[in-house]
Specification:
Layout (H helix, E strand, L loop, with lengths): L1 E10 L2 E11 L4 E5 L6 H8 L7 E6 L2 E2 L5 H6 L2 E3 L12 H6 L10 H6 L1 H21 L15 H12 L6 E5 L7 H18 L2 E5 L3 H7 L3 E5 L2 E6 L1 H5 L2 H8 L10
Parallel strand pairs: 3-8, 3-9, 6-7, 7-8
Antiparallel strand pairs: 1-2, 1-4, 4-5, 9-10
Helix pairs in contact: 6-7
Length: about 260
């Protein structure tokens, strides 16, 4: 579904992404792991159009999407979330979800003056859809809560809910577990699996929690120093000596006996 070929992103002399090539197959939950500074988030930012690549290509279902802006990718069904949630703090959780779909009649001045009936009808439909999303995520009780009052984990669930308000094809989740307690992380994981199995979402997930990665993701791609270091199942990756060395600075063969 997504193919990245020989991708580079340089910041002056620093090569944040240094010739990375990888594929994300349709229908998978692909994990992307690596030590801090490996280039994972920069790779996400280039794929999702927030940063232009220095060189290389990104294709989606065979179409070259290299360098397209986020709004264009949004309409193609490519969405991403962030390490720090971006909510409209003063609006309710339901209203945050209702804001997502584009092309609403209320966005046009003419309709705002003369199409109030149509706007009201659209808003009722969006509110119903938002409530269905909140029910799916098991946070219906937060529908009328100000989004700024949510916990970190609840905000991550809200971000996931936003992807459900449009026709998402692939979603890039950046450290969905950061600052989230274990109970809510399990809820998020359950929602990701259900979206994958029941609605056909494809996911690519950056996460440092290997239990979470092992539960959800297959395959797992490992980055180090801007390059793809390894790819395989979670169990294979955790036994890969090159991966252990990238994380810990020493390979298995150099470990002192206990």
């Amino acid at each position: 579904m997504i193919r990245v070929e020989t991708l580079h992103k340089h910041f002056g002399g620093f090569h944040a992404v240094d010739g990375a090539s990888l594929e994300i197959a349709r229908g998978t939950i692909t994990g992307l792991i690596g030590p801090n500074g490996a280039g994972k988030t920069t790779l996400f930012n280039v794929i999702a159009g927030r940063l232009p690549p220095t060189s290389g290509t990104v294709t989606m279902e065979g179409e070259d999407i290299t360098g397209l802006p986020p709004h264009a990718l949004f309409h193609k069904g490519l969405l991403r979330t962030f390490q720090i949630a971006h909510e409209f703090a003063s609006m309710t959780v339901r209203e945050n979800l209702m804001m997502v779909p584009g092309g609403q009649s209320g966005e046009r001045l003419w309709s705002a003056w003369f199409g109030r009936g149509r706007i009201a009808q659209e808003e009722r439909a969006l509110a119903k859809q938002a409530d269905e999303v909140l029910d799916f995520l098991t946070i219906s009780h937060l529908a009328d809560e100000k989004a700024g009052n949510l916990s970190g984990g609840q905000k991550k669930l809200l971000e996931l809910g936003r992807t459900m308000m449009v026709d998402a094809k692939i979603v890039f989740l950046d450290e969905v577990g950061a600052g989230v307690n274990r109970t809510l992380l399990n809820t998020i994981g359950d929602a990701i699996v259900r979206l994958n199995k029941e609605r056909g979402y494809t996911f690519c997930v950056i996460e440092h929690d290997m239990d979470f990665i092992g539960r959800l993701c297959d395959p797992v791609i490992v980055m180090a120093e801007g390059k793809v270091l390894a790819e395989g199942s979670a169990s294979d990756i955790m036994q890969n000596e090159a991966v252990i060395e990238a994380y810990l600075g020493t390979g298995l063969k150099n470990k002192a006996p206990a």
